[in-house]
Amino acid sequence: MILEVKDLTVEFQIGKNFLTAVNNVNFGLGQQDSLGLVGESGCGKSTTGYALMNLLPKNGRISNGKVLINGVDIVTASDAEVRSIRWKEISMIFQNAMTALNPVQKIGDQIVNALLEHETISRSEAIDRASYFFEKVGISSSRLMQYPHEFSGGMKQRAVIALALICYPKILIADEPTTALDVVAQRQVIELLIDLQKELNLSMILISHDISAVAEACEKIAVMYGGEIMEIGPTRDVLIRNNHPYTNALVGSFPSLHKPISKLTQIPGSPPNLADMPSGCSFYPRCTYAQNICLHEKPPMRSVRFNKLCKCHFAEELDFNQ
Amino acid sequence: MGDIIVENLSKDYVLKTGFIKQLRGKAETVSAVNDVSLVINEGEVLGLVGESGCGKTTLGKMLVKIESASSGTIMIGDKNIVNIRRKELFDFRKDVQMIFQDPYDSLDPKMTVYDIVAEPLRYLKLAKNSEDMIEKIYEMLRLVELSPPEQYVNRYPHRLSGGQRQRVAIARALIVNPKFVVADEPVSMLDVSIRAGILNLLQKLNRENGISILLITHDLATARFLSHRIAVMYLGKIVELISSNKLMEMAVHPYTKLLLSSAPDLFADTSNRIEIKGEAASATAPPKGCRFSPRCNYAIASCFEKEPELTEIEKDHFVACNRVFERE
């Protein structure tokens, strides 16, 4: 395992209260594995990504758990150790790549300066490396001399991918890399990530609210709700042969081009409020299958069919098929 | 109200260029919508699909008179609304409304839900008295499933979730009892689990109240779910117009097929996708001939010269492609 996440819990301080944004999350990633983290806004998927980088905002902290990157726990590591891991072992593409680049600096300079900050190499070596990664993501290296406004949305996203890869990380976290893009550019970015993963031997975590995009890029998927992983396993077995009522409702609420046109499943209620989480199962108030036990008792994670783990009292009985 | 008949509609924007250049008539223009003709039948949902910058929102805004047209006609009944007079605009607003994309931006944060929904009634003087107004507003909030209404009327937008905000925006558009609504990406800003609720609601409003809808979206699956027919736009032009239930099997325009093949979909076969060529061209300098030709896998020499016309190739199926009859 190149990455092991054990009982990860992240809290945010809001006023005097602590909100649990990520609750007891467990997963592992082998070399060249790809895992998708999906869920709605506020489910903790991006926070999980930041926690893996040990880059939480000031009011956030990892209150429990381990994040082992090649055996080193980034949670308890010293500053020097963190510096040798972050960007070099594990790297992240942040959401809103469109605005991640400095508009008044040439893109090439931004990449070269970032690289020189992290490695002791000469400027010309850094430029060579930037050109190499630009070509890798499908942009001509002559465009390193251009400014962000001269790039289309899809190209900016690719430039940001090149920036994330510049120190040869082994793990890449991509947070909503396709969200602001058009359909065709989305497909290009997904295809690029899949190619890069194979070519550079990357382990990848793809964070997105778009389950279809994740389905195309990742072998495994984890569905998050209210800070917890509700169902995790091989992508198609989670998304098509669901065991958790939330996964089932989520997939059913998407219109598909490849299914007959029918009514969409509507999930009643609204996404959970972290400041006011229900006792028992966090999906309980919106669940059509909820029973008395769900109100009082938090369901444990249990193994179900197809090598999946599922957090539902009735996971074995609920065999959904999309 | 009858059908809405759009003929040769265009919208040009003048880019900010130097004063001297403008005087010399050399100012750059962007043709956001270029010579579009289409019909929205009474009681129909027409899906308008395309990538960002293709002109779909501009077209929608012209239909509700938020944008003025540069040329062409929009006939609603026997009135051409392109050159409608101010006084008539007042009546027009009772029939035609718009739902905007971002419910975080489109609601005034200093107004309560009640005032937001009451505003069109007050402005268009549609309530007989204050009791009538309250009754209308409560009924509308129930219709958009913000119920019981007492719980919502005194809230400000910041105390509503995204889905609830969009429901308020829909209530505001529908309170005047319009016959035609332009819905611009009504679900793209919302969480996945609440999208289905809004889409089902729009479908219900169309089926039960007979409201015609122009649904503007970049998402083909959403358009297919809600619309009777789908118009695909590329760089200001309609390139294909087809009924939704024929979309998957019968679409022929290379751009429509590229979109269908590229859309991420859990149930799609991704092994046989259409190759992507180039990037979308800019509307400031649209390619000569067929606007899609530089990215088209089927383009021949004449496609770079001759602009194709939107032609009916079978009943209710229109395509703008020079090679539509030669290709298999």
TrEMBL record, chain A:
CDD domains: ABC_NikE_OppD_transporters. It is found in: Cell membrane. InterPro entries: AAA+_ATPase (IPR003593), ABC_Ni/Peptide_Import (IPR050388), ABC_transporter-like_ATP-bd (IPR003439), ABC_transporter-like_CS (IPR017871), Oligopep_ABC_C (IPR013563), P-loop_NTPase (IPR027417). Residues 3-251 form the ABC transporter domain. One of its GO terms (molecular function) is ATP hydrolysis activity. One of its GO terms (cellular component) is plasma membrane. It is a peripheral membrane protein. Keywords: ATP-binding, Cell inner membrane, Cell membrane, Membrane, Nucleotide-binding, Translocase, Transport. Its main location: membrane. It holds the Pfam family ABC_tran. One of its GO terms (biological process) is peptide transport. Belongs to the ABC transporter superfamily. This is Oligopeptide ABC transporter (ATP-binding protein). It comes from [Clostridium] ultunense Esp.
From TrEMBL, chain B:
SUPFAM superfamilies: P-loop containing nucleoside triphosphate hydrolases. InterPro entries: AAA+_ATPase, ABC_transp_ATP-bind, ABC_transporter-like_ATP-bd, ABC_transporter-like_CS, Oligopep_ABC_C, P-loop_NTPase. The keyword DNA-binding does not apply. Keywords: ATP-binding, Nucleotide-binding, Transport. One of its GO terms (biological process) is transmembrane transport. It comes from the Bacteria. Pfam families: ABC_tran (PF00005), oligo_HPY (PF08352). GO terms for molecular function: ATP binding; ATP hydrolysis activity. Residues 4-260 form the ABC transporter domain. The keyword Nucleotide-binding applies. PANTHER family: ABC TRANSPORTER, ATP-BINDING PROTEIN, TRANSPORT ATP-BINDING PROTEIN. Belongs to the ABC transporter superfamily. NCBIfam families: oligo_HPY. This is Putative cell wall oligopeptide ABC transporter (ATP binding protein). The lineage of its organism: Bacteria, Bacillati, Bacillota, Tissierellia, Tissierellales.
